[in-house]
Amino acid sequence: MSRRAKNRTGESSSSKPEPEASASDVSRETPPTAAPESPPSAEEIFGERLPLARRYAELLAGAGTERGLLGPREVPRLWDRHLLNCGVLASVIPANATVCDIGSGAGLPGIVLAIARPDLRVTLLEPLLRRATFLSEVAEALELTGVTVVRARAEDHRGTYDVVTARAVAPLSRLARVALGLCRPGGSVLAMKGERAGTELDEARPELDAAGAAECSIERLGADLLSVPTTVVRVVAGASRGGRSSAKQKRNRRDGSGSARGV
Predict the structure, then answer these.
(1) What is the protein's known function (predicted)?
(2) What is the pLDDT of residues 108-153, one digit of tens each?
(3) How far apart are CA 21 and CA 129, in angstroms?
(4) Residue 247 in domain
């Protein structure tokens, strides 16, 4: 395997080893359905790296669907529902940040962020071997030098990151302790959520406070680019992440525009 994409897929192994395909195999698999054309808004998100995003779309439509990482019905809406939906997160991540994508699956949003923001150092955390193998192959095929794939459960991983991302991993109440435990003090958890984001945040308040959350907010991203903006719950880690913060918990329930939160 090339040294371009760092790979630690063997870090956690509770199952018998499975034969791994070579990193080039993902590029040779024929897509059962061609990836759709990228919309004009894709250029605003990916800029000069749009060709990489298009290549990733092809890999998702091909090897991703063949290996069961993406449903065939998702291919026609690959850009709006997946790539652009994740890509708008890049606008709220600090320069040169370290990012951990929990339960990365097919690389959403981790791979997308690494394409859109080459300045980021992105760790893709995925416990399942077949998914971790796919991620390693994609990272090498696209020459994403800032990507590291770690095969492990989030609960077992040790690290301190500026930003922790999660998409369709777990309810916020269950995600709180693990995600905040991976954040540096002052770092952020960006949990991609749907229309129930406000309700889910309210229900998770006790767990968030106990895990050391210093501030929580709901942000809606990409309203000028997407037909349906991406809803993100941002949780800022306090000084006592993983335990109750001694500082007064801030309960900022405002959306990204500064107006009162509406769900």
Answers:
(1) Specifically methylates the N7 position of a guanine in 16S rRNA.
(2) 999 999 999 999 999 999 999 999 999 999 999 999 999 999 999 9
(3) 11
(4) no
Look up the domain containing 144 and give its range: 89-237
Residue 187 lies in a domain: yes
Residue ranges for the known binding site for S-adenosyl-L-methionine are: 103, 108, 154-155, 167
Burial 131-166 (b: 16+ CB within 10 A, else e): bbbbbbbbbbbbebebbbbbbbebeebebebbbbbb
Question: What's the structural domain count of the chain?
Answer: 1
Q: What pLDDT is stored for residue 31 in this prediction?
A: 45
Strand order of the β-sheet with 230-237 is 6-8, 147-150, 121-125, 98-102, 161-167, 183-193, 230-237, 213-221
Domain containing 135 — which CATH number? 3.40.50.150
The tally of CA atoms less than 13 A away on the side-chain side of residue 188 is: 16
What pLDDT digit, counting tens, does each position of 40-74 carry?
Answer: 999 999 999 999 999 999 999 999 999 999 999 99
Which residues are annotated as part of the binding site? 103, 108, 154-155, 167
Cα distances (angstroms) measured from residue 164 to each of 59, 125, 180, 203: 25, 10, 8, 20
Report yes or no on 24 lying in a domain: no
pLDDT more than 90, % of the chain: 75
CB neighbours of 256 closer than 8 A, spacing ≥ 6?
Answer: 217, 218, 219, 220, 221
pLDDT of residue 15: 39
Nearest in space to 75 (alpha carbons), one of 61, 59, 55, 58: 61
Q: Note whether residue 14 is domain-resident.
A: no
